[in-house]
């Protein structure tokens, strides 16, 4: 399974990066996996996730929509549950040293194709291999190069790929960012 995730992350990095991009930020964090929120059903997953990612400079020419920053990232679960890798864009709205960072992306994951809760008979698999990944972070600039964010990451198919299935998984945690 780890080899499969490594291959997924390598493919994401190889095909998800603009050829002329140069790094703006690297980040990493630790997240609680399978947090109970109104956006998900219980999948029976847990543990902690280690997430690492890379944000690029804002996309030139898109200043009128806030200058979104493309990113790639991967997440490995400590309990052997769902791992994933993805790409997306995020925006940084600064208010002094504090800021809000919403983002949206797509991920591929290695969760089972079919999983059923034996107690309820309800399907708890994620419904499709490709999932949407909205996220939201609240951050603070600690130094010109360092910032810290409390973030929420959600993965689900939004019932677009399978209208019957959408338990989703939420992760909440802290990540440290380093500007290059």
**Quaternary structure classification:** single chain
Number of strands: 9
Runs in which pLDDT lies below 50 for 5 or more consecutive residues are: 5-22
Arrangement of strands in the largest sheet: 1-2-3-4-6-7-8-9
**SSE pattern, N- to C-terminal:** HEEEEEEEEE
Alpha-carbon distance between the termini?
A: 32 Å
SS-derived structural category: mainly beta
Helix content: under 10%
* Percent range for β-strand residues: over 45%
Q: What about the largest sheet?
A: 8 strands, antiparallel, barrel
Query: What is the overall shape?
Result: elongated
Number of helices: 1
Tell me the Rg in angstroms: 16 Å
Task: Explain the overall architecture.
The chain has 180 residues and is mainly beta. The protein is built from one helix and nine strands; from the N terminus they run H-E-E-E-E-E-E-E-E-E. It has one helix spanning 2-16, and strands spanning 23-33, 48-56, 69-77, 84-90, 93-95, 98-109, 130-141, 146-155, 169-179. Strands 1-2-3-4-6-7-8-9 form an eight-stranded antiparallel barrel.
């Amino acid at each position: 399974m780890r080899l499969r995730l490594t291959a997924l992350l390598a493919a994401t990095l190889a095909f998800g990066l603009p050829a002329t991009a140069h790094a703006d930020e690297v980040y990493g964090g630790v997240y609680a996996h399978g947090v109970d929120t109104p956006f998900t059903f219980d999948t029976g997953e847990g543990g902690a996730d280690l997430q690492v990612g890379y944000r690029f400079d804002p996309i030139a020419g898109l200043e009128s929509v806030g200058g979104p920053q493309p990113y790639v990232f991967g997440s490995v679960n400590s309990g052997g549950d769902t791992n994933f890798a993805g790409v997306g864009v995020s925006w940084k709205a600064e208010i002094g040293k504090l800021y809000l960072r919403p983002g949206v992306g797509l991920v591929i994951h290695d969760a089972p194709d079919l999983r059923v809760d034996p107690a309820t008979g309800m399907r708890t698999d994620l419904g499709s291999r490709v999932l949407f990944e909205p996220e939201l972070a609240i951050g603070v600039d600690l130094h010109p190069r360092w910032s810290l964010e409390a973030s929420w990451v959600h993965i689900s198919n939004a019932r677009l790929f399978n209208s019957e299935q959408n338990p989703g998984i939420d992760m909440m945690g802290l990540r440290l960012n380093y500007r290059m």
